[in-house]
């Protein structure tokens, strides 16, 4: 039996009627080679821990095994608020689905594999820069405990790809339980293909939300699940300072996973109005707009579901979004602050510190990490970050008084040591800072992936100390602040 035959590879998406996709072969890049391979993810899928040329040929498209059946998905979506019917996998292909050792089924998708019928004016390619950024960030968010697609591998090449300048062509192997986006539903709705719309919903329920199949209206149940998952994802982004940058409905996974990484950025200094995408002139996708845009996108999805669900029921479901997001955010931010239980003044305490962080442009990640170390460091490490000593000292006094009320469900008081210990498990020392990503990209473009591997390794355990990589935990130097990121990828 060949190696490929031993894997559990299926093609359930390909069972949809042909209007859902176009079958097409990848166009390999020149002189492909491995840039990275995600050993632990590969192991969980029964793939070799060390990738060889057979795997390279298979994933790069040079020699596709019969177990893969590449296809480009058709979808549409609202881009910056405007409906675009002409979207689809313009540079990506679904190779099939693979079932891991726990029985979970993942799409195997390659991004940067050449033109498809949905490429429009594009070249079907992805550059090494954006491929490295997606690889590092999706794995970093996974390690932080956030919902995200995963990166199985990165293939680099000698093919030049032209953006603002000539760059290196590369491919990402992306894994996720589904690549179905809000825009898939919009496509079938706006083209009036209502039996396809229903079929899509039936399969999303069967594959991803089987728990709603006995709901009075399973389609409404599905929508409620999507709302809940989207709210959880955006609460995670807000609590961890992640700005996605291009929250178009074609970049919204129905599973509420961080998806289609483009000009994203983690906040360095805390700036609620931060716009990471320099192509976003209006600030539509600014950091503090994300919760509202989540609702906008869910409303666009609701509209596409009107043939399946009563409008009033969809509206009622949408009404739950804000509360779900606030609950999830409150849970995450109280955990980051080490506040157990939910007391009346907690939201004020949180609001006050965010106001101080914004007023003084304090590094968001460093602040929380220092606050998590009050058992081993003096409070100067926190107060020393601020210039308004009166404000921070008064906040800290209130905060520590509140912490004294921290109690287990049993009523026993939680010590400062134990609070801080638990806070260090949820407040990362390391995030993917934009300037760090740029440094490893610069080296990788010269053929040296060692800094990339080092950074990827540290980001796998972002809550650990990694004393030898102290520099990665520091806020950016002046040259590394506010780096220009655009949709170009
Ligand atoms: P994105 O902005 O990456 O979410 O992509 C929006 C749409 O443009 C999707 O339909 C993509 O498949 C397509 N697209 C983006 N970049 C390219 C490219 N270089 N070549 C072809 N299609 C692309
Ligand atoms: Mg996209």
TrEMBL record:
<feature type="binding site">
    <location>
        <position position="123"/>
    </location>
    <ligand>
        <name>ATP</name>
    </ligand>
</feature>
<comment type="function">
    <text>Nucleotidyltransferase involved in the post-translational modification of proteins. It can catalyze the addition of adenosine monophosphate (AMP) or uridine monophosphate (UMP) to a protein, resulting in modifications known as AMPylation and UMPylation.</text>
</comment>
<keyword id="KW-0808">Transferase</keyword>
<feature type="binding site">
    <location>
        <position position="124"/>
    </location>
    <ligand>
        <name>ATP</name>
    </ligand>
</feature>
<keyword id="KW-0460">Magnesium</keyword>
<feature type="binding site">
    <location>
        <position position="251"/>
    </location>
    <ligand>
        <name>Mg(2+)</name>
    </ligand>
</feature>
<dbReference type="GO" id="GO:0070733">
    <property type="term" value="F:AMPylase activity"/>
</dbReference>
<feature type="binding site">
    <location>
        <position position="88"/>
    </location>
    <ligand>
        <name>ATP</name>
    </ligand>
</feature>
<dbReference type="InterPro" id="IPR003846">
    <property type="entry name" value="SelO"/>
</dbReference>
<feature type="binding site">
    <location>
        <position position="91"/>
    </location>
    <ligand>
        <name>ATP</name>
    </ligand>
</feature>
<dbReference type="GO" id="GO:0030145">
    <property type="term" value="F:manganese ion binding"/>
</dbReference>
<comment type="similarity">
    <text>Belongs to the SELO family.</text>
</comment>
<feature type="active site" description="Proton acceptor">
    <location>
        <position position="250"/>
    </location>
</feature>
<protein>
    <recommendedName>
        <fullName>Protein nucleotidyltransferase YdiU</fullName>
        <ecNumber>2.7.7.-</ecNumber>
        <ecNumber>2.7.7.108</ecNumber>
    </recommendedName>
</protein>
<dbReference type="GO" id="GO:0005524">
    <property type="term" value="F:ATP binding"/>
</dbReference>
<feature type="binding site">
    <location>
        <position position="174"/>
    </location>
    <ligand>
        <name>ATP</name>
    </ligand>
</feature>
<dbReference type="GO" id="GO:0000287">
    <property type="term" value="F:magnesium ion binding"/>
</dbReference>
<feature type="binding site">
    <location>
        <position position="181"/>
    </location>
    <ligand>
        <name>ATP</name>
    </ligand>
</feature>
<feature type="binding site">
    <location>
        <position position="260"/>
    </location>
    <ligand>
        <name>Mg(2+)</name>
    </ligand>
</feature>
<keyword id="KW-0067">ATP-binding</keyword>
<feature type="binding site">
    <location>
        <position position="260"/>
    </location>
    <ligand>
        <name>ATP</name>
    </ligand>
</feature>
<keyword id="KW-0547">Nucleotide-binding</keyword>
<feature type="binding site">
    <location>
        <position position="90"/>
    </location>
    <ligand>
        <name>ATP</name>
    </ligand>
</feature>
<dbReference type="Pfam" id="PF02696">
    <property type="entry name" value="SelO"/>
</dbReference>
<feature type="binding site">
    <location>
        <position position="111"/>
    </location>
    <ligand>
        <name>ATP</name>
    </ligand>
</feature>
<keyword id="KW-0479">Metal-binding</keyword>
<keyword id="KW-0464">Manganese</keyword>
<keyword id="KW-0548">Nucleotidyltransferase</keyword>
